[in-house]
What we know:
Layout: E1 2-6, H1 11-22, E2 26-31, E3 46-49, H2 55-62, E4 67-70, H3 83-103, E5 107-111, H4 139-157, E6 163-168, E7 170-172, H5 181-190, E8 196-197, E9 201-206, H6 207-220, E10 226-229, E11 232-235, H7 236-246, E12 254-255, H8 258-275, H9 283-288, H10 298-304, H11 311-324
Parallel strand pairs: 1-2, 1-4, 2-3, 4-5, 5-6, 6-10, 7-9, 8-12
Antiparallel strand pairs: 9-11
Helix pairs in contact: 1-6, 2-3, 3-4, 5-11, 7-11
Amino acid sequence: xKAFVTGATGFVGSSLxxxxxxxxxQVGILARKxxxxxxxxxxNLSIHFGDLKDPRSLEEALAGYDxxxxxxxxxxxxxxxxxxxxxxxxxxxxxxxxxxxxxGIRRVVYTSSVATLGLRKDGTPADEETPVSLKDMIGxxxxxxxxAEEAVxxxxxxxxxxxxxxxxxTPVGPRDIKPTPTGRMILEAAQGKMPAYVDTGLNIVHVxxxxxxxxLALQKGRTGRRYILGGENMTLKEILETIARLTNQRPPRIxxxxxxxxPLAYVFEAVSLITGKEPLxxxxxxxxxxxxxxxxxxxxxxxxxxxxxPARMAIExxxxxxxxxxxx
Length: 328
């Protein structure tokens, strides 16, 4: 069995590659020539250099593989040129799906995100069928992932490709080298740099459980169907309290109102346009924080046999990895 993985040098992708190798797959990955290979340099795999924006390089890379896991995504809540987000997430997805069709890939697992799903007004966990539309998407990242998922689903409905969609919630754990926005929050909290919090919530899941969900989707998922790969719903206050206990720090006690942070986010972004550095807080991030992003993984549990460990274990593994890197 030969499996190809995009985004393998990143957080979720590197976890998935490790799992596939343990399960006996021959693994190939896509990497740009300037990509860091730190997350996969110790693994037995084939590296194909190319770019999601270069269709020919994708066709050459996918030739001879049975399965494709398209994990790669541009996950940024702020970017100086928003067009980049759409080029990477929307057009890049279309390019590799077309390449998969041309090269005869047998089945694709496409990594979407809970960012594309609807949220319930009462804060109870949403699922794959919670109503949502493009106008509900806050920010370029969410809009781009929504558009990309729609393109993938359309291909499945037309019978052009066998593809299963997975929607990870908020992965946490080791090897978040970039780090992701969530990983940065955990790192800064572990460093004692988050004395306050806002009233919001996330669904925390261990990155390795997300990887297993990908494999289960390949094996058992229904074509064109989406599956939430989530874990435990926690308020931000609960997350920060957990980190504080793990690092022997005092948990944050100051709750900041969203309306106080939003004007500051506009200022931070204006400064970032001049400096080119990522803002301390983003407008989209503050707007997202007004909602509790709670989700249910019951469909994946029922149809795929998906399971997840307690969120505390995911947070603990992330903190321990940052300690090993000398960052805490």
